[in-house]
Amino acid sequence: MINYLTSDPGTSYIEGKSGLNDDNFFVENLKRHLSENAKILIISSDPYNKEMNDGNVRFISEEFPKSGFSLTKVDICDDGHRDLVKKLCDYDLIVLAGGHVPTESKFFNEINLYDEIRKYNGIVMGISAGTMNQAEIVYAIPELEGESIDSDYKRFIPGLGLTHVNVIPHFQWLKTLTLDGKNMIEDIAYEDSHGKQFIGVVDGAYILIENGKHTLYGEGYLIKDGICRKICNTGDKICLD
Question: Is the CB of residue 202 less than 8 Å from the CB of residue 172?
Answer without folding.
Answer: yes
